[in-house]
Design goal:
single chain; Rossmann fold; 5 domains; 7-stranded parallel sheet; 6-stranded parallel sheet; globular; binds adenosine-5'-diphosphate; binds zinc ion
């Protein structure tokens, strides 16, 4: 047999199949050791075949097999090929998405267990006491773990019994589904009629991809859990994707309560070893549900019965490192392969997704009401221009202050949301206009009052606080913008007895810290939670009856074509945290632009109105989903090298442009908006295309110029254009 092997070297020059002669114990999906360029390297068997395309006598042999049983199944091997072709990414790199890092570092686990089985009486020497003891033990037991038997009676005695034919050794897969008995341990809730109809409609529908567009609090989670439970009952497995599992303590405990050990939870707070263990439980079939952020889409599951992708609009579903894959795209491939449904859920679907649902490519399931017809929270607009005119220069409008006072007096909880972008508090010299910037990145620094230092939000570098302007020596330094720390400071002054928690990238080291803050808040150890984007995502805090959005329009005025959509999503999602239980909720939305149509649609909870408006705008201006934005990024620590490569990429793409001018709505090269990040100079070719037709060619032509010291990558509809 000949094995087609990918060597584990992430280099485009070795990104091809190498053939090796393979012994019988080699199978597709196994890791192997192979000779390569005078060394022994790790390889991965993609396929086995008879004969060879090369002179078979010259083929080298596989040296050894690392895995007894393939670590990747057929479907995953197929996916590796498709992802590699789609994103022009070396297969060795794509493989890494599928395998936990521990495995690559050589971890191996027994997939089989040996059992000793009683086979019949035999003649024993009278002096073989241990053998006699083992024999009588096995006469009783009939079947016993081989290793355990050796531990009891000694390896040589057991081996002797095997040799005499008294015992047989049987290999068996390690126990499967040890939690099977737990089925139904945590009873399912009785679904509301709307939830039940949705489940049935999804089951009946012929479309692979199903969108659940349900307002916040409409009970989508319960629908997901029901679909997963149904898959398990049918003997199948399930994948449940969420933007960031470690940020949703309730979700974790719900999953644990309902599915126990059958759910493997892969989140960023786990150590590499823990991730490996969870992965292994999935691979062996011990766990049937893979729950996690986007990487869980690569879970080594077989016979998948449903794939859920919650908060479909979330930007974290697009990978920001090579390969820059779309999780929805991969989930769809897996759903098609397994003949199951891919269920996308959101209160604010991306306009791309909603358009597909409206045009019939996806099944559309609408849940326009909250559970038990609880009203949506009322959104009050606070016009900040008027506040300023009245001489109020604080971050809080009069109406928000009053509402906060009422909320606290009633013993309820409040959330104060600050846009991530509004976080920046840069330092400006009032005399010469100097702005403090990072030495490695072309961005201004942010002042952090607690540590009294300046930080770069791109690379994390810290700088000492300035006492005078380094340019002109002036001492009048100004802090612009409002940060979360400043907001907490103001709150402490206004409500001295309130207990306040803050959550942003700085309050915590690692995701575990976020979890702790959210847990403390849900256990009502605090009255007010102040935070950025992170607190917008699917949390269910029943005692929260007030949400304050301090700067609703911060994201409206970015030049990104999606800024309107983002703002609508953010306002809706954050508002959705209010009044989820019995008490009616309220939202105060502060803005300098109260007539803005996006905010108006959000205040009225009018997703459809927003969608119609947005989609006609996109159509008129030729933006996605009616076009595709493609950015080719060239970056290098040496600026001349970046420029030179940019020129090469540009020439190569220009040929394409000249041959298909009609396909292009825009085509140009330029500096990236942030010209330098972590000492790398960044240049880009920006394109807007009418269709996907030229994508493969664009990938091929661009990536061909990637070289030592300069990286080139392609992004489709990039989430972050900086
Ligand atoms: P969504 O995910 O759509 O925002 P959730 O699934 O979090 O909504 O549900 C909102 C609230 O309604 C939660 O507190 C949840 O426990 C509750 N809930 C959901 N389904 C039911 C049901 N069938 N019966 C009673 N309460 C439910
Ligand atoms: Zn920096």
């Amino acid at each position: 047999m000949t094995a087609e092997v990918i060597v584990d070297i992430a280099n485009s020059e070795v990104d091809r199949i190498f053939e090796y002669r393979a012994a019988e114990n080699v199978s597709a999906g196994c890791r192997v050791k192979v000779p390569f360029g005078g060394r022994v390297v790790d390889g991965f068997v993609m396929r086995l075949k008879e004969g060879s395309d090369f002179d078979a006598s010259k083929l080298k042999s596989v040296l050894s097999v690392v895995d007894e049983v393939p670590v990747l199944n057929r479907e995953c091997l197929l996916l590796v090929e498709r992802i590699s072709a789609r994103y022009r990414c070396p297969k060795a790199l794509v493989l890494r998405l599928f395998l936990p890092s521990e495995l690559r570092r050589g971890a191996v686990r027994e997939l089989f267990k040996n059992y000793a089985v009683f086979a019949g009486e035999g003649e024993l020497s009278s002096r073989a006491k241990m053998q006699a003891a083992a024999l009588s033990f096995m006469r009783e037991m009939r079947r016993f773990g081989y290793t355990e038997l050796c531990a009891k009676f000694g390896g040589s005695a057991v081996a002797a019994l095997v040799k005499k034919g008294v015992l047989k050794v049987e290999k068996e897969r390690v126990a499967r589904a040890p939690y099977a008995g737990m089925e139904g341990a945590a009873p399912e809730r009785t679904l509301t009629p709307a939830q039940r109809e949705t489940v049935e409609k999804i089951d009946r529908s012929s479309e692979t991809v199903q969108l659940i567009h349900g307002v916040t609090g409409s009970g989508k989670t319960e629908i997901y859990l029901t679909l997963i439970a149904k898959a398990l009952r049918a003997g199948k497995s399930a994948i449940f994707l969420v933007p960031e599992i470690s940020l949703t303590p309730q979700m974790l405990s719900q999953l644990r309560a309902r599915f126990g050990g059958r759910a493997a939870i892969l989140h960023s707070g786990l150590s590499a070893g823990e991730k490996f263990d969870e992965w292994w439980r999935l691979r062996t079939g011990e766990a049937k549900i893979a729950v996690g952020a986007r990487s869980a889409v690569f879970a080594p599951l077989e016979n998948i019965g449903v794939i859920i992708l919650d908060e479909e609009h979330d930007t974290s579903y697009v990978s920001e490192s090579n390969p820059r894959y779309s999780t929805v795209e991969i989930a769809r491939l897996r759903a098609e392969y397994n003949g199951c449904k891919l269920v996308l859920g959101s209160a604010t679907p991306s306009v791309e997704t909603y358009l597909k649902a409206k045009t019939g490519e996806y099944g559309l399931n609408e849940l326009p009401e909250r559970i038990n017809r609880r009203p949506m929270p009322e959104i009050l607009i606070a016009d900040m221009r008027r506040e300023v005119r009245r001489g109020n220069n604080s971050a809080f409008s009069a109406v928000l202050r009053d509402e906060l006072a009422d909320c606290l007096a009633a013993g309820r909880q409040a959330i104060i949301f600050l846009n991530r972008r509004g976080f920046a508090q840069s330092v400006i010299c009032r005399e010469c206009g100097y702005v403090a910037k990072c030495e490695s990145c072309d961005v201004s620094l942010t002042y952090h009052s607690e540590e009294n230092c300046l930080k770069c939000h791109y690379c994390g570098a810290q700088y000492r606080m300035l006492t005078a302007c380094p340019e002109c020596g002036g001492v009048h330094l100004n802090y612009t913008g409002t940060g979360t720390q400043k907001v907490v400071g103001e709150l402490r002054k206004m409500y001295p007895s309130a207990r306040i928690l803050r959550m942003d990238n700085d309050t915590t080291s690692g995701k575990e810290g976020h979890y702790k803050i959210l847990k403390a808040f849900s256990e009502r150890q605090a009255d007010i939670l102040v935070g950025t984007q992170m607190i917008a995502k699917g949390h269910d805090f029943p005692a929260v009856t007030l949400v304050g959005i301090l700067d609703a329009d911060m994201s409206l005025h970015f030049s990104d074509y999606r800024s309107g959509e983002r703002t609508f999503q953010l306002v809706t999602q954050v508002s959705g945290r209010s009044g989820r239980a019995e008490e009616q909720g309220k939202v105060v939305l502060q803005t300098y632009d109260p007539e803005n149509y996006i905010l108006r649609f959000a205040v009225d909870y009018d997703y459809k109105g927003f969608f119609e408006h947005e989609i006609s705008l996109r159509k008129a201006t030729n933006f996605p989903p009616f076009a595709r934005i493609v950015r080719v990024m060239v970056s290098s620590e040496e600026e001349p090298k970046a420029l030179e490569t940019l020129k090469e990429v540009w020439f190569s793409l220009k040929e394409l442009f000249d041959a298909h001018t009609g396909e292009f709505l825009f085509f140009n090269k330029m500096k990236a908006p942030v010209k330098r990040i972590q000492n790398k100079y960044r240049y880009q070719v920006l394109m807007r295309l009418r269709s996907d037709a030229l994508l493969p060619e664009i990938y091929a032509r661009s990536l061909a110029h990637s070289a030592r010291g300069v990286s080139v990558y392609v992004e489709e509809n990039p989430v972050n254009m900086s």
